[in-house]
Design brief:
By secondary structure, this protein is of the alpha+beta class. The protein contains eleven helices and twelve strands. 54% of the residues lie in helices and 16% in strands. A hairpin with a 5-residue loop joins β3 and β4. α4 packs parallel to α5, α5 runs antiparallel to α6 and α6 crosses α10.
Length: 497
């Protein structure tokens, strides 16, 4: 089997990480590295400057000299200077010309007039600068103005110190900073990519499995290898696949069941239709019987179609109820009377003793009647000949409780919690679509009520419908009046009989 082509490129996750997180981190690291380099550079040069200024401090005594003694004093200081091996100091006069140096250079080769002007203009009479010598060596120089007691400029002493050792130390520090940050950068990049790959790989597996599930392979499962969000996602996908598999099985069972439910009445209609057609003019009793069967099966088909339509409306959230105050007892009596004859034909007794006081609820008469008929129909289907269906109406804490208790085959304990689910049938051998109780439960929910199912296998099932009672009785509606007329009419017919 050829490998499935991967249409989803998870490298975009890594690309997005490089563009956002990694790029920002790189910039931050670069800023920190540059900042450290600047700090070290500043600290080193300040230390060099302080050391040089301290070493040349002996020349400050020139401020006690005058114009006549300035040069001789300067020469004496240069000859007796002890730090010659560390820094060089030369003295310039008030015109900026150097005339003596601690290293014995030719004074005529130095003109410091410009530097002297800058030092005189400086706030503290000191001008510091970095420059290159004629042979390319970098040096740090400081020009310190010398003034006499009358604040006249006598000249200045200029110290110079080589930056070769300092630059060597700084370059070493820069190299260390660069290596450290390259290591951090590389480690962060490797760990980030590995981390993202650890996310992208399982997500790719999830995507591949999800596509298999979408294509109908509901047995596809993911192996949970981690106990984090990815692991939870794998469990969720597996749970989804299990639910889809169950739903698919229920759907197939539902289609099979509905097909059977449709085929049976259609077969009866076709068979009795042909029989009645052939008996026309010869056996009117057989014709009448055939027409009755056709009409009965047509009603059965109509009810099944209506049930399917209600289920479709429920799935789309369009199942509506038109509520009005109704006498729930009268409605229950009407449904019971209607179903009693059918039950008697199957040798099943339906017993209902209505309470003395009427109870009003706010509900949709047709929808509630549909619920009661569905529950009674299920009770009759699962109760054997000679069985009993007991209907009771109770009142508790502002609610009316209607119980339908049968002596049927019951429901297995494992199936009780699923009987209200769509497509679910606890017994596949009994007719039914498997959606009637799901629709009934939704109708009761829209009445702010409850539909409860309790069952013991081999003993029977009890279905309880709980509906809130209206606090103040409303005037009888057209529906309740119709129920009353039907009941009274039935009673009159019974008296006549």
């Amino acid at each position: 089997m050829p490998k499935e082509k991967k249409s989803i490129n998870f490298n975009s996750i890594i690309a997005a990480w490089f563009k956002s997180v990694f790029a920002v981190t790189t910039i931050v690291l670069a800023v920190i590295g540059v900042s450290l380099a600047v700090i070290f550079n500043t600290v080193y040069f300040n230390n060099v400057q302080k050391a040089a200024a301290t070493a040349a401090k002996d020349f400050e005594v020139l401020s006690t000299a005058n114009f006549n003694s300035f040069q001789s004093t300067a020469i004496d200081l240069c000859e007796s200077f002890d730090e010659k091996d560390k820094i060089e100091v030369h003295i310039i006069d008030s015109h900026g010309r150097a005339f003596v140096s601690t290293t014995g250079f030719d004074p005529d080769k130095r003109d410091e007039e410009e530097n002297l002007k800058k030092a005189v203009a400086a706030e503290k009479g000191v001008f510091i600068q970095r420059e290159k010598t004629s042979d390319g060596e970098r040096i740090l120089t400081g020009t310190n103005v010398i003034k006499d007691k009358n604040n006249r400029t006598l000249g200045a002493y200029v110290w110079s110190v080589s930056l070769r050792a300092t630059r060597r130390h700084l370059n070493f520090i820069y190299a260390v900073i660069l290596v450290v940050f390259l290591l951090i950068f590389s480690l962060y990049a490797v760990m980030g990519i590995r981390f993202l790959q650890s996310i992208a790989t399982p997500i790719r597996e999830v995507g591949s499995t999800a596509r298999r599930i979408a294509m109908g392979d509901f047995k596809a499962r993911l192996e949970k290898k981690r106990n984090d969000e990815i692991g939870d996602l794998c469990e969720t996908v597996n749970y989804m696949a299990s639910e889809l598999e169950n739903a698919d099985n229920l759907k197939n069972d539902f289609i099979s069941s509905v097909s059977h439910e449709l085929r049976t009445p259609l077969t009866a209609i076709r068979g009795w239709g042909e029989t009645a057609k052939m008996a026309v003019g010869t056996d009117e009793e057989l014709v009448a019987r055939g027409i009755d069967v056709v009409l009965s099966e047509a009603d059965r088909l109509s009810n099944l179609v209506e049930e399917l339509l209600d289920f479709s409306r429920m799935q789309q959230g369009r199942l509506q109820v038109n509520t009005a105050p109704i006498d729930i007892t009268k409605l229950l009596e009407n449904v019971t009377d209607m179903y009693s004859e059918l039950a008697k034909k199957q040798g099943i007794e339906i017993s209902f003793t209505p309470p003395t006081a009427a109870r009003m609820v706010l509900g949709d008469r047709d929808r509630l009647k549909q619920v009661f008929i569905n529950v009674l129909d299920n009770a009759v289907k699962y109760t054997e000949k000679g069985g009993l269906i007991l209907i009771t109406q109770l009142e508790d804490e502002g609610c009316v409780q209607i119980q339908f208790k049968d002596t049927g085959v019951g429901i297995p304990a494992a199936a009780v919690e699923h009987v209200k689910e769509k497509f679910y049938k606890a017994n596949q051998t009994v007719r039914g679509s498997g959606i009637g109780l799901a629709v009934a439960d939704e109708i009761i929910k829209q009445h702010d009520g409850l539909l409860l199912v309790e069952s013991t296998e081999g003993v029977g099932t009890t279905v309880t419908v709980v509906l809130p009672i209206i606090e103040e009785e409303a005037e009888p509606t057209a529906d309740t009046q119709a129920d009353t007329l039907i009941t009274e009419g039935n009673n009159e017919n019974e008296n006549q009989i």
